[in-house]
Amino acid sequence: MNTVKKAIRILLLLGGIPLLILLGATAWNDRRYQLVTMGIAVLSVIPFFLTFERREANTRKLVLVAVLTAISVAGRFIFGPVPFFKPVTAVTILTAIYFGPEAGFLTGSFSAVVSNMFFGQGPWTPFQMFSWGMIGFLAGVLNHRGWMKQRPMLLTYGVLSGIMYSFVMDVWTVLNYDGSFGTAGYLAALASAVPVTAVYCVSNVVFLLALEKPVGERLMRMKKKYGI
Amino acid sequence: MKAFAAYHPIVLFFYYIAVLIFAMITMHPVLLAASTAGAVLLFICMYARRPKVIAKNLLYYLFLFLLLSAVNPLFSHDGERILFFMNGNAVTLEAIIYGAAIALLMISVMFWCKCYNEVMTSDKFLYLFGKAIPKLSLILSMALRFLPLFKSQIGKIHQAQKTMGLYTGDSFVEKIRSSFRVFGAILTWSLENAVDTADSMKARGYGMKGRTNFSVFTFRLRDGILLAVILALSGFLAVGIRGGAFWFQYYPYIAGAYTGNLQIFYDIAAFLLMMLPAAIEVKENVKWKLLKSKI
Asked: How does pLDDT run across A54-96, given as a tens digit for each residue?
């Protein structure tokens, strides 16, 4: 059963995305990259959601993800006045470390959807869903042997995820900017986003340092007490 | 006024999908103009009682429009008609026009999204996807519900700590320490609360077969009519796009093929589709004024 699901997931990723690119290249020669990349961002999120949707319901885990999502969204609210300085990534990473890659992915991508309901949905939502979700997923995968619980690893991952987030979101910036995607434009966008990326990295490290102990301890306690 | 938002969520959802696809699929000036006009008019209708919001947004996006049209020629030097040289680089008419078109596309999508946030509220979203993805929409609705709950709980914890005489100092460090303490308390409380909620849900049979959901939306005749109109217009436009009616080229020279007798109908269809919500808003507004004047 597990292998079937895995096969479906891989098929969707491997088949759907090239098909979409092909369609974008042949169906209209107008080079409408925006629609195609938005579609890719959506498609790459769907397999994760589908596998979660099909599995037997673990109500406790489900509600826990909702709570952690709400907490990271509340964090985005509290730090609203400070631009780009947000605890969403840190909460997502910590969730992933204690509850696995799937919970990390869900918390990250749902934080994007829910917070954008207040800050405004837009073409950037799928990209945010993808990048925050992926940050959570990777953190969970890397924690396979408890690596991520070591502080140097955790902080390095915090910095890396800030850079990763910037890389993915700048794809959207470039597309939005002139509707086509070129290496030169992408590099220019990355270069101009360096201060923002720096703020992402610093905020991730600061929030991970600040939240690692209080959040980690409590999540660990939940895990032990209720066996989630 | 929110006459358009009163339609059935399915109709609204289809409309938004169609509009966003048609707005982004080509860069044809007619489609761009129709999409921008429709989005901005709808925005004005929706915020009719808050002229300040309208003015602020229009000014901001006008500025953005000018900025983007001015910046594109600095990066892109394609195009045949060279206006002048700057730092040895050609500034072309095509690049300026393409910059304006891109800016228009971006602004129209922005305004559609602004209206989307007003029209497709979270309850409608959950109604639409509640059946297809029950678990995910449950997480979504719970997260949305937790936010106000947290807010009130944070206030309670804060007050309780104050009455205990904790962290009454005015210094910045004291405030930070206090908010961390409150955060810790709210975290523990919400996690414990979550498990209680989950157990309670399970005890009441969450996830069992044959459960139905309550919804306030009914599909009326007018929803069917509007949906039919939207589908017909979208189909007609799709045929037009397939036939090359909305083909337009900016580089290396501007060319838009005027394709035959049907072109004017395609253009009209584009405007009709994009103007639908604004027209509905205006119609309802006029009707309201008329009825009121008869009293």
From this structure: 777 678 888 888 999 998 888 887 776 667 778 888 999 999 9
What share of chain A in percent tops pLDDT 70? Answer: 79
Does some domain include residue B241?
Answer: yes
ipTM > 0.95, yes or no: no
pLDDT of residue A2: 59
Is residue B274 domain-resident? yes
CA distances from A92 to A15, B29, B282 (A): 29, 43, 45
CATH of domain A2-226: 1.10.1760.20
Does some domain include residue B219? no
Picking from B229, B82, B225, B105, the residue whose alpha carbon sits closest to that of residue A32 is B105
Say yes or no: B166 and B184 in one domain. yes
**Sole residue written with tokens 């925050």:** A132
Which residues of chain A have a CB within 8 Å of the CB of B143? 66-67, 69-70, 73, 110, 114
* Cα–Cα distance, A190 to A70 (Å, whole number): 30
Q: How far is B6 from chain A (nearest CA, A)?
A: 19
Residue partners of B94: CB distance under 8 A and separation at least 6? B78, B79, B80, B81, B250, B251, B252, B253, B254
Complete DSSP assignment for A15-28: IIHHHHHHHHHHT-
Surface-to-core class of residue B209, CB atoms within 10 Å of its CB (0-12 exposed, 13-18 middle, 19+ buried): exposed
The string of pLDDT tens digits covering residues A132-163 is 888 888 888 888 777 777 888 888 888 888 88
Q: Of B203, B238, B257, at which residue does a domain stop?
A: B203
Min Cα–Cα distance to chain B from A197, Å: 23
Range of the domain at B172: 134-203
Cβ <8 Å between A177 and B24: no
Q: Domain check: are B180 and B238 in the same one?
A: no
Distance of CA B37 to the CA centre of its chain: 15
